Amino acid sequence: MVVNSASERVLAGLDPEQRAAVTAPAGPVCVLAGAGTGKTRAVTSRIAYRALTGEISARHVLAVTFTARAAAELRQRLAVAGVASVQARTFHAAALRQVRYFAPRLLDGRAMPELLDSKVRLVTLAAARAGLRADRTAARDLAGEIEWAKSSLVEPGEYVVAAAKALRETSHEPAKVAEVFAAYERLKRAGGMIDFEDVLRAAVWGIEEHPDVAEQVRNQYRHFVVDEYQDVNPLQQRLLDAWLGGRDDLTVVGDASQTIYSFTGATSAYLVDFPRRHRAATVVRLVRDYRSTPQVVGLANAVISQARGTEARLRLELVGQQPAGPEPERRIFTDEPAEAAAVAARCRAMIDAGTPAREIAVLFRTNAQSEAYEKALAEAGVPYQVQGAERFFERAEVRQAMVALRAATRSVPGETPLRAAVVEALAGVGWAPDAPPPGGAARERWEALAALVQLAEEYAATPEILPLGVAAAVERPVTLASFTEELARRAAQQHVPTVDGVTLASLHSAKGLEWDAVFLVGLAEGTLPTTYARTTEQVEEERRLLYVGITRARQWLWLSYASARSPGGRPRRASRFLPQLAPAGTTERVDAGRPGRAPQRRAATRIVSCRICGTTLLAGPDRKLGRCATCPSDIDDELHERLREWRSRVAGAQKVPAYVVFTDATLVALAERRPGRAEELVAIAGIGPRKLGLYGEAVLALVGGATVDEICPQKTF
């Protein structure tokens, strides 16, 4: 085996565990990779290292992932590593490519059926055939059940029993769902159509039932890599087994603690059982987290350490590698509008302080929670984008802009700088590089086109590509024409640029992404975990959702919930996954006591809210100040100095440390809040009846303007 400088560069900078994954021998390899541990680097480095050392041929590798974006990133990294001939695709894209290639042979010359982009229209018709009236929401639910069944290799006649075993909760009686499923299949066949699950099944059928197809496929693909292996469903696993054909050169990468798609049929069972199915498997654990601060990593570990069940067997304890950062902030609000307003205000402050809006995310359990935050952010003048909504390149304004850019290639002088050329072209569709317009929809349109300008700037700034193993850089042209070609390529691969706005996303759609600052909101019982999580397995998946959300944050993390949905509404408890969010004064059990003894309850404690932003204050210093440590101070510096001098004299006379009289935090609170009555004094945490009696009169006099000498002469006390 030849080892050259390019392969050595692949190994450079890898930590010991990553290096073990990259250099593992041929055969079954299972990489258990925690969040932020560099799994994509490990995957691409393993492929590149094996190809560059001559162990394998890059053209015989098929790397499979679950999103077009992840596949595009794999291809890009492999190209930079000098192994561009590797095929990196999603399961569906790989299967569709094979089915189309073999269609003339498999269909005896007949045309390939039309591929359905969406099941909803056909499911609506199928529901009518089954005697159901389904609106769009109901049709989407039924389509989801059909997708689950087909991904789980369940036929219409088997659905009722399978759904009962899987504890599926459906919008209609299982027997009716089965009728809709059967009618959908009939309508689809009659119309000469197939859906995405049919594509996978056709690929399996082509290999399992046609030896010549199997031989050609297996001769082409001899080495397999599967990313996010915890998300594989039975149909995808069957296709993978068909591709392998009994061979075992397979590398899988996954994290059982990020199994959050079981409702679609995904199961971590294949990842958990991998060492048992492949007795000679090499298992490597990646636990060094290069994404998040130790504070974020510590909270993530604390949450997942309580996990139970099958996935917990492969639980990883992450080790943070980044410098220390701020502790995660924990906030409780009176109602959801107050929570959304506080989040928007903090986003505004962070952006004003220099944090790019695109590096901030607000994550929630359900898409229905998005509206309150869209409204609050719009009112605060904060740009935002909704993750998982309309695809970027499918937006009407983006399609219009791309047409305008292509047209401009014929009229803009070739020597025009790329950014200027793009701005000029976008002026034709009404965009100008000034402040975005007011209004949610108009602002979103402006931000989408601004993202194209930003992409042009990035494209112009990196004209050279230097793949590993290539002696000289390859320079591509920086012209409007080449940029429009780049946009077309990205559109085809759904390689979306980052819009400069705060991201609003469900926890499910946030998986695989990361931001500098993350707000996790709505962490209340009934929301996370959802009320629909009734079994132990379902509750554990909700816990993993929170774990995924926490590990999206690089530096700064906020966790909050509202004690009621609306002002004056029914009170709620904090999520059981974060007991430290429970507000003081609730009836949370803290000690079950001895057997036969009634549970002990926490004594009621006065709840203190920030006088500036309204957040419930949990930390002792914050409660004394009456505000969050991050909210602006309005301290009276001159009063603060007089209070410090007075405290010094009192402590000296009593021969006690100064903090025994009042702590520093209490002095700051007094100088900020400037109480004028005894009632206002005792409202400050840390000033009880005893200290009110000892020092109340003197403090009120100092706040009123008296000097220290007037209140506390040197020779007295």
TrEMBL record:
CC per GO annotation: cytosol; DNA helicase complex
GO molecular function per UniProt: 3'-5' DNA helicase activity; ATP binding; DNA binding; hydrolase activity
Residue span(s) of domain HRDC: 633-713
Positions of the UvrD-like helicase ATP-binding domain: 12-293
EC main group: isomerase
GO biological process, one term: recombinational repair
UvrD-like helicase C-terminal domain ranges (all copies): 294-555
Catalyses which reaction(s): Couples ATP hydrolysis with the unwinding of duplex DNA by translocating in the 3'-5' direction; ATP + H2O = ADP + phosphate + H(+)
Keywords for the protein's UniProt record, in alphabetical order: ATP-binding, Helicase, Hydrolase, Isomerase, Nucleotide-binding
EC assignment: 5.6.2.4
Keyword Transcription recorded: no
Keyword S-adenosyl-L-methionine: no
Positions with a binding annotation for ATP: A33, G34, A35, G36, T37, G38, K39, T40
Family affiliation: Belongs to the helicase family. UvrD subfamily.
Protein name: DNA 3'-5' helicase
Provenance organism: Micromonospora sediminimaris
